[in-house]
Amino acid sequence: MRLSDQEDAMHLIRSTVALMATAALTACASTPDTPAGPPDYSTIVGDPAPPQARLIVDCIAAATSAGTYDRVQDGDTRMIRFSCSGPVARAFYDGLAEHSAAVGSEFRFEGRTYRSTDRVQRDLFAVDHCTIDQQESAQCTVNLNVGGFLASGPQ
User: Fold this and answer.
1) N-to-C CA span, the chain
2) Are 59 and 88 in contact (CB under 8 A)?
3) Whole-structure pTM over 0.70, yes or no?
């Protein structure tokens, strides 16, 4: 039985898409995990931090001063979690308003309004965020990824 020209074209398109998908998956699966050549130990050049960086730094400083930091882990990802409250947290919460509205990262949960630096994907692990309750009491969390350094116990 002879296929129509339209059916022939659709068969060709499906075959081409399947071949391209297979090639793409094969390329991804065969990419080496190790970089080519030795590592580059040069200092990475940075840019001046934007003004909102001060909100994060102030929260970390307040948490360090108050001793309100701990270690959190999810799989192989280990972080130091800094928690601040009071006026520093309120300034950070207010500073997130425009950004949270733009990226859709403001939400309500258990009587608190949250604003985060990025949208929550699965849970709050590694998500820097601030919350405020109905009494206008603010709390913020900033996470610092420190890699394997926190894998071991006290030193």
Assistant:
1) 77
2) yes
3) yes
